[in-house]
Every structure is written in structure tokens, then in C-alpha cells.
Amino acid sequence: MLIFLYGSDTYRSRQKLNEIVENYKKAHKKGLNLKYFEGKDLDFGEIQNEIQQTSIIAGNKMLILEDTFSNIDFKEKFLKNSKNFISSKDLILFYEEREISGTNSLLKLLKKSGKSQEFKLLEGQNLKNWIKKEFNSYGAKTESLVIEKLINFLGNDSWRLSNEIKKLATYKKNKIIQARDIELLVKPKIDVDIFKTIDAIAEKNKKQALSLLHKHLEKGDSSLYLLSMINFQFRNLIQIKSLVEKNYTYQNIVRSTGLHPYIVKKSLWQARSFNLPELKKIYQKIFKADINIKTGRIDPETALDLLITEI
Questions:
Q1: Is the pLDDT of residue 311 over 90?
Q2: Beta carbons within 8 Å of 102's beta carbon, 6+ residues apart
Q3: Residue 36, CB half-sphere, CA atoms under 13 Å: how many?
Q4: Which residue has the higher pLDDT, 205 or 94?
Q5: What is the model's pLDDT at position 56?
Q6: Distance, CA of 47 to CA of 44 (rounded, Å)
Q7: CATH classification of 2-118 is 2.60.40.10, yes or no?
């Protein structure tokens, strides 16, 4: 039997892998027929011998093959001898921590002759539902704004989200988790590249800002994540600009805002290009774009383009 798990959301794919392994161990208490192989240096003959050899231990074998798609020699030999593996009673699980092109011949074989599951990074309502499910798994209760704020802070990084959800659930055991708990306990994801986009906006270079924005989209960043990062940074700029006008020092700004020193340093430079009324108007436009997306009035990518051109 062939199983294939793959995709860019490695947290959920690893969860599924662990679930399959645990189920196998329950059925095969000793676990001596469970073996892992690293695909980069894997010799096809080693896997072929494992399948051909009859185990003296009761039960079928389970072989986990990681990163085999990067091993061209293994891939070609597996495809040529695929009938032997398809008909095998042993469980052969392929695991890839990345996206695979739909035209890949090994992908086609595994999808046709086995069971496959792709784990894409979650977005929109699917992401919110997953976060809610994670909180529920710890018996945690949250107020309505918590999930939204968590996404604004961390995007769709499921590894960090899972860790922060566990931390919040532990900290607020038997209590309702509030939005202010996110600000107190969760450090926002620092996306260095997004600062370049904000720099271009600050310099009033709309052409460059749009170009950088679309590079983010091309590499797979979601429109909602990008909007949340722009929203996050302009909120920081308003906060920092108001403190600068009150003659706060750099150290005092770091202490007062609780922001990462790197974010404060970058924001101080960017804030010089705006006055406070300008920043507040931009923030209102970001809020409007967010509402338009969530109400379905405009698609996310178009909303981002319009936002940049209007700033």
C-alpha cells in the first residue's frame, strides 16, 4: 500500500505522519517492522530488499521514505519497478515537506495507485477554523477578537501558531483568553522583506511598492497575510510617531511599546517620512481595505493594489 503526504504546511503534514505512525505502533506493539529512510542518499536496492524479504516478525512492514523526490536515481528505478510496490502488502509512506508539481511522474503514480494528501498553508476561514480547533483541543475559551489578532501577529505559520496557542491555553487555564493576552504574550513574526515594501511606501515610490508586493504574492505569501503585516507596521508607526512627538527616547519607546528593538529601529526611520495625520489616514484606508475583503466587495489582491496606489 502506498501513502503520500506532502505540502508547504509542514506542521499539519507532520501531525498526520505522526498519527499514522502511532496507529501502526498500536497495531504492531513491538514496532520492529517500522523503518525510516532518508531519500537524498537512499539506495533503491535497499528498499527493494526490504519489500522482498519476508519478516520473521508477525505483521506487515511500514517504511517511511522522506525527501525521495530529490533522488533522481531512486525515482527512476521506483517508477520502473512500481508494480512490485503497488501490489505489496507492506505500507510504504512517502513524505515531502514541500509542494510538488502536478506534472511530476512520481506524484502522478502515487496519487493514482495509493492514497495522497496535500497540506497547503491555510488561509481565510479555513485558517480561523483550524485555530479554533486547536484552542478547543486544550479546552480553551477565547473572546471573538483573539483569533483575528493571532493571525495579524503570526500570519499562517502553523508551527508558531500551535506553540503560541498552547502557551496561551496554559497561561489562561480555566479563564477566557482575551485579545490583550495576545499583545502581552505573543511576539509578532518579523518579516524582514515586508519592511522593504513599507520603505517603498514611505518613499512614495508606488511602482517599487507594487513590484515588491507582487514578489511576495509570487513566492506564496497570501494577500490577507500581507495586508495584516502592512496593518501591523502602520499601527506601529502611529504608536511610535506619537511617542517621538512626546520626546521619548529609543529605549523608552522599546519599553513603552513592548515591540522588538529591530522593529522600533526600522519604524523610527520610516516614521520620519510621515506626519501623524498622514499615518492615521493611511491606517483608515488599510482598515477600509480589510473590511472590503472580508465582506466580499473586492478580491484581496486587487484591494492591496488599490491600497498602495491610494497611499
A1: no
A2: none
A3: 7
A4: 94
A5: 47
A6: 5
A7: no
Q: Which CATH class is domain 192-310?
A: mainly alpha
Q: CATH 1.20.272.10 spans which residues of the chain?
A: 192-310
pTM tops 0.85? no
Q: Give pLDDT tens digits for 114-149.
A: 999 999 988 889 999 999 999 999 999 998 889 988
Range list for CATH 3.40.50.300 in the chain:
2-118
Pick the CATH number of 124-185 from 1.10.8, 1.10.390, 3.60.70, 1.10.3470: 1.10.8
